[in-house]
Design goal:
The protein is mainly β and about 325 residues long. Helix content is about 5%, strand content about 40%. The chain has 2 domains: about 130 residues, Jelly Rolls, CATH 2.60.120.10; about 130 residues, Sandwich (Jelly Rolls).
Length: about 325
């Protein structure tokens, strides 16, 4: 059966609307200028609300950074972050002692579980050209049984992420499987680690006048499509313009056809956890008592403390892509 149900259309805002098991999805596209010697923007920062620069009126933002754009150390508990760095770079440090630099298509998967602090900074490495950052961050919930799983950090290097090339489209499989091609395994405690939960995070590109079919999944599985670049496409009889998303009917094969320009899409899919959600900023639990306990634990323990000299650590400019794990294991690309 193909496309008999009209999808529910919604505008993409900041953040993007999600459905269980996903909690949050945000898209950062920043056209940063040339970098300076300390990997910040080589232009004046006068007039910006440093430490809280999120203005959509500018072509780029500092976010919570004051010299280098990004997000200095902050805590999480009870869920996972999936960070897709399509363009540009992200420097990671955390309270486990782990660190890394990833970008140009890499993905970082971090299970906060019982509690972790981490920092995400965006070094501007090119001193002669614009430093474009295109980054997605997705929050995937953890079920009650896994809220206190040990924190875990994993890099999915772009060289190891399958990209399925079809005649008129391609799919980058960050998690899940498409036509027998499976993504690298996520972190051990993830909801995505059980294939019965049908979790999929795919980056889809459809060439002009091309098409692709999303295979059906079981009833009740949520499936959201986010159209973030291009002009127009059709899902069955429904036209969708760039800047909008669509909640699709999972138990049907879904034909997506591009208009006269290339379209780029993000797909988030998964079986709902279907448990109560209580959220207070970076803490996601099942009830308000657990939220208060999370806040108390963080005040008392700082989730293990911060082993770095700064809260906005940026790695040396000459450093390439790498991951340093809590056990001392080092991967370099």
């Amino acid at each position: 059966m193909m496309n008999t149900t009209t999808p529910t259309i919604f505008p993409l805002g900041f953040p993007w609307k999600t459905q269980d098991p996903f909690l949050f999805c945000v898209y950062h596209l920043d056209h940063y200028p040339e970098g300076n010697e300390i990997m910040g923007p080589a232009v004046s920062l006068e007039g910006r609300s440093l430490g809280n620069d999120f203005s959509e009126d500018n072509p780029w933002r500092m976010y919570h950074g004051r010299t280098v754009p990004g997000f200095p150390a902050h805590p999480h508990r009870g869920f996972e972050t999936i960070t897709i760095a399509q363009k540009g770079y992200c420097d990671h440090t955390d309270s486990l002692g782990a660190a890394g630099r990833f970008g140009q298509g890499d993905v970082q998967w971090m299970t906060a579980g019982s509690g972790v602090q981490h920092a995400e900074m965006f070094p501007l490495l090119d001193m002669e050209h614009e430093n474009t950052l295109e980054l997605f961050q997705i929050w995937l919930n953890l079920p009650k049984k896994s809220k206190f799983t040990p924190p875990h950090f994993k890099m999915l290097w772009q060289e190891n992420i399958p990209v399925i090339e079809k005649e008129t489209a391609k799919i980058k499989i960050i998690t899940g499987a498409y036509e027998g091609h499976a993504a690298p395994e996520p972190t051990p405690g993830s909801w995505a680690n059980d294939e019965n939960n049908e979790v999929a995070v795919w980056m889809i590109t459809i060439r002009p006048n091309g098409s692709i079919v999303l295979p059906k999944v079981s009833a009740g599985t949520t499936r959201n499509l986010y159209f973030y670049e291009g002009e127009s496409l059709t899902i069955g009889e429904t036209e969708l313009r760039s800047g909008f998303g669509a909640a699709l009917n999972g138990p049907e094969d879904t034909l997506i056809e591009a208009g006269t320009k290339t379209v780029r899409l993000l797909l988030l899919q998964g079986k709902p956890i279907a448990e109560p959600v209580a959220q207070y900023g970076p803490f996601v639990m099942n009830n308000e008592t657990e939220i208060q306990e999370a806040m108390d634990d963080y005040r008392m323990t700082a989730f293990g403390g911060w082993p770095w000299k700064k809260h906005d650590v940026v790695h040396p400019k000459e450093k390439g892509r790498f991951a340093l794990y809590p056990d001392g294991r080092l991967e370099e690309k």
